[in-house]
Amino acid sequence: MEQELEQVTEIYNLIVTYLVTYSFQILGAVIIMIVGVFIARRISTIVLNLCQKKDIDITLSRFFASCARIAIIASAVVIALPKLGIQITPFIAAIGALGLGAGLAVQGLLSNYGAGLSIILSRPFVVGDTIRVQGVWGLVKEVHLSHTFLTNEDGELITIPNKHIIGEIIHNSQADTILELSVGIAYDSDANATIASIRKRLSNMDGLNTDRPVQVGIDQFGDSSINLGIRCWAPTEHFHEVRYQCTTAVHEVLSENGISIPFPQREVRMVS
């Protein structure tokens, strides 16, 4: 019991001695950290607003703002630690040794961060673009250092690690997605008139991108029909809804013009 009391007394004396010796330094370190955090927030906000005024991409703007905030807070920590009697030189050496071991242990995570930094700086796509990569596609919602969020018409949130984006073939169609349809008409139908009617109907239909013209033409000659190909651009957020509307509009055009959609036929001849 006496030994425990002596140990408690020694610890108490050490704490009191430390507080007496470094009381003003502790107060100064606390003030430095408070001021550092305050300045970091203000500078981060200023950098973000400045980037937005310069019409810089929102992902890149947030990255610059985060870097400024982290740099200022790290500087405040470096200034505050010596005030507490803590030398930062051994910590830097230890952090370097730990960083090497941690880097080997979390190669996958670091590769994601490296790929994310490459995406943010090179900007192969930005928030609001429609991309196709690794067999998935969707509208870019957010871009982070470690992963990228996509969303689609169904409201699904698709998370792609950035290391699976960099080095792959990326299809970027901005805010729209190509909509391709095909319909067959009989060989005795007026193909040119049908093409003109479909193009006119779809060009005046709401929901399609009017900046990109609707493409309609003969795609191929089938066994029983002339197959027409239709290409237009639909907003990714309403892709399937617009696709159904376009399919219905094409069917209405064929019905209004008395154009039939032939079914496969075979001619069988009996040879005696």
Describe it for me?
By secondary structure, the chain is an alpha+beta fold. The chain folds into three domains: about 1-105, Helix Hairpins, CATH 1.10.287.1260; about 125-170, SH3 type barrels (Roll); about 175-255, Alpha-Beta Plaits (2-Layer Sandwich), CATH 3.30.70. About 55% of the residues lie in helices and about 20% in strands. It has six helices and eight strands, in the order H-H-H-H-E-E-E-E-E-E-H-E-E-H. The strands form two sheets. A five-stranded antiparallel β-sheet has the order 4-3-2-1-5. A three-stranded antiparallel β-sheet has the order 6-8-7, with helices on one face. Strand 7 (about 215-220) and strand 8 form a beta hairpin. The longest helix is centred in the first third of the chain and has 52 residues, at about 1-55.
Quick summary:
53% of the residues lie in helices and 19% in strands. It is built from 6 helices and 8 strands. Strand 7 and strand 8 (226-235) form a beta hairpin.
Question: Sheet with the most strands?
Answer: 5 strands, antiparallel
Please state the structural category.
alpha+beta
What is the chain-wise order of helices and strands? HHHHEEEEEEHEEH
Give the fraction of residues assigned to helices. Answer: 40-55%
Mean pLDDT, all residues? 82
Number of separate strands: 8
Summed up, the helix count is: 6
